[in-house]
């Protein structure tokens, strides 16, 4: 009787998980399927789940109608610089707030931390005016530097500080006794130990930068500077939306993230737990 209940419980659990997985994967399946359909067969009713015939030409058209390789490059290099810069500043500032004593340290940290609560939309107009005065609108500068030092950067500082706090102070004291300066202690001892926190931060930052749409929409005017999320709007005109190309572009834009998740899924899952450090 007990074994039967156990089998029934596992069956129900896996049935629920399978249904939820299908619901989650259905939009992704529809995106891939639509990207391989002819435009005239996208809105058929009942819907055509499997493309017939399979039209790989949509992916060729994607790169021929617009310089999509350029948009990929823009997104890649912006996300890479933002990720590297955010990790650099967060590692330094997090170490300072966790291990170095200076006046009003906690007050300054709380003030900086409160900046995370300010919505992006509130700071957009003054930041845009500042960028415009410096001639930095319609460049990639507003998409690279402010994210490093804004709310995303402060999240990184918070994450790194919480991680450094868990490292025993005896390591710091031993390094001082051996004659290490604070910078040498940071580079040689603390930074290698903070690799899990930095890996987590880099994944979250890369995902956010890659998917960012609002800030490129505000700051970029020239189409050759567009990132992928903004470039998707180029497939919509007065005559309608080229959904087969939009879906093909979405598949191409999703592939780097899937590859990243495939190789870093362990760090990604650990990162979700790491954000709960006290």
Automatic annotation (TrEMBL):
Name where it's found: Cell membrane
Q: Which UniProt keywords apply?
A: ATP-binding, Cell membrane, Membrane, Nucleotide-binding, Transmembrane, Transmembrane helix, Transport
Q: Where is the ABC transmembrane type-1 domain?
A: 72-264
One Gene Ontology term of the biological-process aspect is:
transmembrane transport
The record's annotation in SUPFAM superfamilies points to:
MetI-like
Domain of life of the source: Bacteria
- Cite the Pfam families for this sequence: BPD_transp_1
User: What InterPro entries does its record include?
Assistant: MetI-like (IPR000515), MetI-like_sf (IPR035906)
Q: How does it sit in the membrane?
A: Multi-pass membrane protein
Molecular functions (GO terms): ATP binding
TM segment ranges: 12-32, 76-98, 107-131, 143-164, 185-207, 243-264
CDD domains on file: TM_PBP2
One GO cellular component term noted in the UniProt record for this chain: plasma membrane
**Where does this protein chiefly localize?**
membrane
- Which family is this sequence assigned to? Belongs to the binding-protein-dependent transport system permease family.
PANTHER family per UniProt: ABC TRANSPORTER PERMEASE PROTEIN MG189-RELATED, ABC TRANSPORTER PERMEASE PROTEIN MG189-RELATED-RELATED
Q: What is this protein called?
A: Sugar ABC transporter ATP-binding protein
Which organism was this protein described from? Paenibacillus swuensis
Taxonomy, top ranks, is:
Bacteria, Bacillati, Bacillota, Bacilli, Bacillales
